[in-house]
């Protein structure tokens, strides 16, 4: 598995280009902006999926343009956040980037335990509400890789004071991540990547579970 990161959009969100080294199939995880740089990096790739960790505008503003460039790619989002793709009031686009969101429909809505196959890779959906009702993490067990969106960051967690946020749900989601056995490489929705072991030791929200 090859992972490339671009920082895009009005709030500097991470967009990941994940390619299965066996089949060459590619998924884009979150897309805060569809830029020429992103399209150039994808120009020779077989883009199968646009996987969304949640529906906030800073993670989806580029989805429409990306889908136009790759019409066969399937847009995937949790069922609770699917409305964000078609209504900027729910995506918070009205405040994050007024008038910039171009609506598009989800092709696949997922829930806890669903699996998305990308060549030899299997992305398993973990529903982790707290930041939004439909926040998810995608993990690839064979690679010990976890894409956490705005649920878990390096040394902190996602905010819960926006629409759909909930402290108790975030607490439960972080506890579930803490209890995942072993270590994982963690690819976050903003800022730098980290590992599960590092967060268990250093993240004050996780240390409470010791």
Relevant terms:
14 strands, globular, alpha/beta, 210 residues, single chain
Description:
A hairpin with a 5-residue loop joins strand 2 and strand 3. This protein is α/β, with parallel strands linked by helices and 210 residues long. Helices cover 23% and strands 30% of the residues. The chain has a six-stranded mixed sheet with strand order 1-2-3-4-5-6, covered by helices on one side.
Task: Describe the secondary structure blueprint for this structure.
Elements lengths: L1 E7 L4 E7 L5 E5 L6 H7 L3 E6 L5 H4 L2 H7 L4 E5 L9 H4 L1 H4 L11 E3 L4 E4 L2 E7 L8 E5 L4 E5 L2 E2 L2 E2 L9 H12 L6 E4 L5 E2 H7 L1 H4 L3
Parallel strand pairs: 3-4, 4-5, 5-6, 10-13
Antiparallel strand pairs: 1-2, 2-3, 7-8, 8-9, 9-10, 11-12, 13-14
Q: Based on helices, strands and strand pairing, what is the structural class?
A: alpha/beta
Shape call: globular
Mean pLDDT: 98
- Along the chain, the helix and strand elements come as EEEHEHHEHHEEEEEEEHEEHH
The poorly predicted ranges are none
C-alpha end-to-end distance: 32 Å
How much helix, percentage-wise, in residues?
10-25%
- Total number of helices: 8
Instruction: Describe the sheet with the most strands.
Output: 6 strands, mixed
Number of strands: 14
The radius of gyration over CA amounts to 16 Å
Q: Order of strands across the biggest sheet?
A: 1-2-3-4-5-6
Strand content: 25-35%
């Amino acid at each position: 598995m090859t992972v490339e990161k671009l920082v895009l959009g009005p709030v500097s969100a991470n967009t990941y280009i994940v390619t299965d080294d066996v089949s060459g199939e590619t998924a884009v995880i979150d897309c805060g902006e569809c830029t020429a740089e992103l399209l150039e990096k994808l120009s020779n790739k077989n883009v199968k999926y646009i996987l969304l960790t949640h529906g906030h505008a800073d993670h989806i503003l580029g989805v429409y343009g990306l889908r136009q460039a790759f019409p066969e790619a399937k847009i995937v989002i949790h069922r609770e956040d699917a409305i964000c793709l078609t209504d900027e009031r729910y995506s918070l686009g009205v405040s994050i980037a007024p008038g910039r969101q171009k609506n598009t429909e989800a092709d696949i809505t997922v829930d806890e335990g669903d699996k998305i196959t990308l060549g030899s890779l299997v992305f398993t959906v973990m529903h982790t509400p707290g930041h939004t009702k439909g926040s998810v993490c995608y993990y690839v067990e064979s690679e010990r890789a976890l894409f956490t969106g705005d649920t878990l960051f390096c040394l902190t967690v996602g905010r819960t004071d926006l629409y759909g946020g909930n402290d108790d749900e975030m607490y439960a989601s972080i506890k579930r991540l803490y209890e995942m056995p072993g270590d994982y490489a963690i690819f976050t929705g903003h800022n730098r990547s980290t590992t599960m072991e590092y967060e268990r030791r250093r993240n004050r929200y996780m240390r409470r579970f010791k």
